[in-house]
Structures are given as structure tokens and as C-alpha cells.
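Supplementary Note 3. Input sequence used for the single-chain structure prediction.
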Amino acid sequence: MGYENYKTVEDSRTEWMKCIQYEDINGSNRLFGGRLMEWMDEVAGIAATRHCGGYVTTAAIDNLQFKKGAFLNDIIVIRAKLTYVGRTSMEVRVDVYVEERDSGTRRVINRAYFTLVQVNDAGRPVPLKYGLKLENEAEEMEWEGAKKRLEIRRMRRVEGF
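The predicted structure, written as C-alpha cells, is reproduced below.
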């Protein structure tokens, strides 16, 4: 894409932790899914901002999967990293874990891919200054998956979804 400068996946990696409190749970005493989505969006935004150095807005969320629940006093860990960089948009993978208090072991409870766009003060998309330097096979596989998700989103737009 003709970038002059590149950043690595590690340059944008972001990790955030939270202990679930009463205001975070729903009527079934589980973590409210909407609250978790809010946190994931914030962490994705921080990772994208760390990459581009500008302002971003969320354009799409793909493959949001609630795999397991979380409960009052659970420790939540949200990790985000870039997987793809286009002309104005970036894809960020967000993984959510519950961390066991005694062992520190983490189990995945959620995962999603967020597409964020760098915008100017008027909210218009602007070209990204930095490309994404892939450093290993796992990062290359994420990049290829991101291209497939991008194509599916484009097809859905054409079909009116």
C-alpha cells in the first residue's frame, strides 16, 4: 500500500484488566454482554490509536462470540492487537479472558475482530501513515483471515446487509 513507515503488531498490543462488580452484572448474575462489548470496543480503540497515532472510530465488529460466562468478582483480561492495516482502516483482534485468582491461568470467554477507521477532526476517514510489519507465521495467518473478513463485509454491503 505504499507506506513509508511500519509498526509491528507488538507496537499496538494492549492489555486491560477489570474485576467484575455489581454494576457490571445482569439479572442472571453474569457479566452483562453489552458492558463487555463496551470494554472490548475501548481496548480495540486504544490498540488502533497506538498504531495510527490519531483518532479512530469503530466501523464494524466481526465474529463476536460469547464462549463462556463471567461472574461477580471474576478478573477479566482484555487483550487487543492489530491484525490488518488497509488504506484508512485497521482490524484489531480482541480476546477476553477470565483470570483465575490462585493460579493466574486464563480461559477465553470471548473473541471478536473490530474494524476501526482513522478519522480527522470532522470525522472523515484519513489515510494511515503506518503499515503493519508482520514478523511471524501467526501474524501472516491473521492478515490472511482479515482479508477474507474484509471481502465478506464488502459482499454483504453489495447485497444490502
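Residues 39 and 104 are 21 Å apart (CA to CA). The two ends are 28 Å apart (CA to CA).
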